[in-house]
Amino acid sequence: MIHDDNRFRKIKNSILTRVVLFICVMIVIGGGIRYYFSYHLIHSHLFNIVSIHQEALAKEAAKEIVHDLDVRKQFLEKAVAAIPLTLLDDPEHLEKRLHEMHTFNPLFSAALVIIDPSGTLIAKSGTEYQTGERAYAQEAFFKSVLKEGKLIEIPFVSPLSKKVIFPMSLPIKDETGKIRAFMTGLTYYEGSDVFDRVLNGHIGQTGDFLLIDAKQQMFIAASDHTRILKPTPEKGKNVLHDKALEGFRGSDMTINVKGEEELSAVVSIPNTDWFVVSRIQTQEAFAMESDIQKTLIWAQSISLIIVPAILFAFLFFFFKPLRTSASLADKMSLGEVPLTPLPIARMDEVGYLTAAFNRLMSMLLASQKELKEIAHYDYLTKLPNRLLMLDRLERALLRCARNDTRLALLFMDLDGFKEINDTLGHDAGDQALVEVAKRFSALIRKSDTLARIGGDEFVILLCDLDSDVASAENAANFVATQCIEALKTPFVFKGNTKLLGVSIGMALGDKASTLDAMMVEADTKMYQMKKKSSLD
After folding, report:
1. Tell me, what DSSP letter sits at residue 458?
2. Taking the mean position of all CA atoms in its chain, how far away is CA 241?
3. Which helix H or strand E contains 68, and what residues bound it?
4. Contact call for residues 185 and 108 (beta carbons, < 8 A)
């Protein structure tokens, strides 16, 4: 009897017993409070989360649109600046110049044209153009740019191909400011990157994007392609849409024209009358809300039944894995044992912590291994090395097969570099290589690759060239000529002036080309040029 009393008193005074009782009380009280306040709190937080997510998607789409517009604007500005006014009176040479620029950087997939103020085509490059006197005079975009001088115009359906085209125009002015002509870039919606996120993006099962012109009250682009170039709904059909047309920016819930409740976010496109809308039906956006309510009830019931029964028996064992892991981690930190994953007794809180620690350790070991094994860049010029160049060449060949384009591989060997090394020393040679890398880097696009694959050997990989052999070859020859010209400026090393030349071997590739064949062809042609220059 006394033994039973002592046992009862021991259990009663045990920390484990008090912890179990305390947790049981907290489960009951906390569960009730949690359930009482959960609905509005969860709804509010979920609304904020989804709103932030929708706004982030809209901002990202807007950012991509701004980038696409800026890239095309910069191209037009550079192209206009590169055309002498005298060429406007020489259509044949003007068209040749225009074709070279369009081929080298085909941002405008439909056409790049020059139109005089009367609307008559002067020069063109591409497939989407109208000939004849004053052929463009009645086009809405031409009237607008002629009247208001807008760079960005409203898209239209081509009378030739029946495809949707996005126009951008820039005036060509003389020294007095008089407009002599307009350079217009025309981009197909289909098959280009313009408005890609809006045209092809989807959010979940019911969400999508809209690009709207507030001034014209027109859908410029939409994931639902049937809306493109259609007028926006009448006022009163969608309250949030009406507010957006009046200047509202942000996110809110609304009822669309189909009577469906949706959560929409509105973000402006800078320097335009356009705004992007990302939207998703609330039924999908807040689908987890009811699931959370059910989960709360289920968790509360399970807690009241299971926790009191198992907590007391397993509380001691709960801390055992933690003690074991801490001891082993301490030994590893002191170097007494090698870095190895900590044992996981069970996947509870301690188990999750241990698993996270193991993942971090695995990432550390993997990173160390990666840093030791992978070096993709040349230590001197910071250019891609041979390994990275071969990887990019392989990927470029895959794109050729997928997109039916061409690429060019330029193998380059410096002429006169050995003399610099022999007469001025290796430091001067290193400086020469760095300077050559800088000069060549300034000549290529961001999508191209300049690599150093040997002592004085460089490679340029030109990707995504036109499928036409002549056009691709012209583009490659243009870059090769630029490289030769870039080395005509003397190099100065501590008062010594030296000239370098370059021997270039070129290989064109298409979907049927192989990596090895292109490497051999370019290398062979380079050494042929090297041999020829030495004989000369």
Report:
1. E
2. 29
3. helix 15-81
4. yes
By the 8 A CB rule, do 505 and 523 touch? yes
pTM of model > 0.85? no
| Winning range, highest mean pLDDT, from 13-22, 119-128, 145-154, 282-291 | 119-128
- Rg, the chain, Cα only: 34
Quote the CA–CA distance of 393 and 190 in Å, as a whole number: 27
Q: Which residues contact 257 (CB under 8 A, 6 or more apart)?
A: 233, 237, 238
For the purposes of burial, counting CB atoms within 10 Å of the CB of 443, is it exposed (0-12), middle (13-18) or buried (19 or more)? Answer: middle
Dump pLDDT digits (tens) for 212-265.
Answer: 998 889 999 998 888 999 999 888 888 898 899 999 999 998 998 888 889 999
Neighbour tally for 187: CB within 10 Å: 26
Domains of the chain (ranges, CATH numbers): 82-188 (3.30.450.20), 330-370 (no CATH), 386-535 (3.30.70.270)
In 469-521, beta strands by DSSP E: 491-493, 496-498, 501-509
| CA separation for the pair 303, 316 (Å, rounded) | 19
- The token duo for 135 is 């052929």
